[in-house]
Amino acid sequence: MDRLQIIVVTYGRPDLVARCLSSVRLSAPDKTTVHVVDNCSPDDTPDVVAARFPEFILHRRKSNDGFAVANNEVLSDISADYVLLLNPDTEISPGILDQLLDGMDGAPDVGIVGCRLVTADGTLDHAAKRRIPRPWTAARYFALRLVGRTGTAYTAPDVGEFDVADVEAVNGAFMLVRSEAVREVGPLDGRFWMYAEDLDWCVRMRSQGWRIVYDGRVSATHLKGGSSGRTRPLRLNFHFHRSMVLFYLKHQRGHPLVDAGVVLGIWLRFALSTAVSGLVQAADVSRAAVRSRAAVAGS
User: Which pTM was predicted?
Assistant: First the structure.
């Protein structure tokens, strides 16, 4: 029996996928099986995986039904003690999985462990350790992000970057999960096409008595948005806000008038962010056109 199964869900960007899988190849402990679930990539990503990583099990999906559904293809039949959900824009180093697995072996009440995630410039990915957002904390978080700050309760500021501590949620980019907990709680909720499925899973795990732990002693690199771009395309932005609505109505529903106000606020934010994104893209196109004309004039 395997000790660990690793699931990497892919959609395009074969360059990032190859870097991720190369790091997995170098870092996976003994008795590990790696599953690559391709979500009907529009390019040659699955062919690259098949050619360069033949030892990994490749699942070629015929449609893109979202992150949760793709992971559930493997989660529905786990045959190892633990399973690692790993984003394709993430890279791991030798030794970190052995350390985390040994820690989970000694703490049988821990359902999920996340590690310190660092971005390309070496700074902490603020979503590596989280509290479950309430409407007010979420609003404050988004407001602070507009001015380049993230110091809200959502980012679990009471837990140090290099600490080991219980948290309410970790990031779905790197989630090491006990298979017993998956069998008890169930797989990811497939209604979340993308975003918030990790928060939902952590809430469900904790409701069944499983601990969620952030271990800042070990790190992985997370090139946030690497497979979807630095800004969310309209489709992903829609699903981000749709997932916020689903999560709120599933876990935080209250008075009908309050619920209506929260849902309306989320969709208003979607409309505003879409408008701002459109203006930014238009400005980028305009600047590119000016640079092109200048280059032609100077030649």
Answer: 0.84
